[in-house]
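Propose amino acids for all 361 sites.
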């Protein structure tokens, strides 16, 4: 089962509309790096990661460092390959672009393994429950209040029981007015998450967390920078709204520090930037031992398998950077629920002809 072929491609995909959050400015495109592996028996696995604008660097890391390093390796020994990749780029790695590159390869290795064994990924990884609660992770910081109301009314009408909106406006008053307008529109029973995208100091986050409680917010996501573990712990302890974090944590060690410090209420790893499925599952099990739920960030087509595998699954984020136009079978969301597919591997089968016009390399 030696790896004989590693192919990297980079795409710049247009978003369905201009998206904005409190920190990243206006977003019109998302970059996807795709890795395709083949073994000596003709088995294939596909992995991918996405980045706002660092795709070239991630693709270069795979092409220049990690791809050649994989040639001839036993594709079944994923833990050994993962550890060797980690150390191969350790000096310039330990997170950052290296974690994105390793993620894409690790996802491809697990896809290859599941397909060779003839099973869907979620069954291979634990097989807890294929039915996963989904929420709409809208990126709508630049929406006016009427646009916010219209968007969330449509989401609830389409069956979602949980929605997320962006916060981080200049004043507390404006954030609370916007959240209050959405709460009024969706009613008391729909879960409402808010995402500050790291905007505030810990002090400001505590102030806003307390005010948000008036509208029964399910979680406050990324209230401050991911580097401030102690600040997150203060926001959990002194605020009045549970805290979600993890989309900007890139190693199992970073997650461990957050959990050990009681700095997070909803753990939110992203399989495309935490090092792939191998560390994602370790984070999920570590969270279980801390009696914490796991939610996901981005790539709902992949995360539905991972959340279906584990007993401490919370919500699956349905993300605005979805690849629906470019895959054979988009993930259906019915009455706010997703079901992990029974097709082989992760079953995110790209339609390469549709991706081709967007290929950068
Ligand atoms: Mg977020």
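Proposal:
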């Amino acid at each position: 089962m030696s790896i004989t072929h590693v192919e990297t491609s980079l795409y710049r995909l247009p978003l369905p509309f201009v998206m904005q959050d409190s920190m990243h400015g206006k977003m019109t495109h998302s970059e996807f790096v795709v890795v395709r592996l083949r073994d000596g028996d003709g088995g294939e696995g596909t992995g991918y990661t996405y980045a706002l604008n660092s795709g070239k660097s991630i693709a270069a890391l795979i092409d220049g460092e990690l791809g050649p390093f994989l040639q001839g390796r036993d594709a079944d020994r994923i833990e050994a390959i993962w550890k060797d990749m980690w150390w191969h780029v350790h000096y310039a790695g330990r997170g950052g672009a290296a974690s994105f590159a390793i993620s894409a390869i690790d996802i491809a290795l697990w896809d290859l393994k599941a397909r060779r064994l003839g099973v869907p990924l979620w069954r291979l990884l634990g097989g807890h429950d294929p039915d996963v609660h989904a929420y709409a992770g809208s990126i709508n910081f630049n929406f006016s209040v009427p646009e916010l109301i219209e968007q969330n009314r449509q989401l609830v009408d389409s069956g979602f029981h949980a929605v997320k909106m962006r916060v981080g406006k200049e004043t507390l008053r404006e954030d609370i007015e916007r959240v209050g307008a959405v709460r009024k529109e969706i009613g008391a029973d729909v879960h409402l998450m808010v995402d500050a995208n790291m905007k505030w100091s810990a002090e400001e986050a505590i102030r806003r967390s307390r005010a948000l409680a008036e509208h029964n917010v399910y979680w406050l996501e990324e209230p401050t920078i991911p580097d401030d573990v102690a600040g997150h712990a203060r926001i959990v302890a002194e605020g009045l709204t549970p805290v979600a974090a993890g989309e900007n944590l890139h190693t199992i060690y970073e997650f461990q520090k957050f959990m050990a410090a009681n700095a997070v209420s909803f753990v939110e790893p992203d399989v495309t930037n935490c090092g792939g499925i191998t560390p994602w599952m370790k984070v999920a099990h570590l969270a279980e031992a801390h009696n914490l739920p796991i939610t996901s960030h981005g790539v709902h087509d992949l995360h539905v398998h991972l959340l279906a595998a584990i007993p401490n699954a919370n919500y699956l984020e349905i993300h605005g950077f979805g690849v629906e136009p470019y895959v054979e079978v988009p993930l259906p969301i019915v009455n706010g629920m997703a079901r992990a597919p029974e097709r082989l591997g992760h079953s995110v089968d790209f339609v390469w002809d549709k991706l081709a016009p967007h290929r950068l390399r």
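The two ends are 28 Å apart (CA to CA). The pocket of magnesium ion is lined by residues 195, 221-222, 247, 297 (CB under 6 Å).
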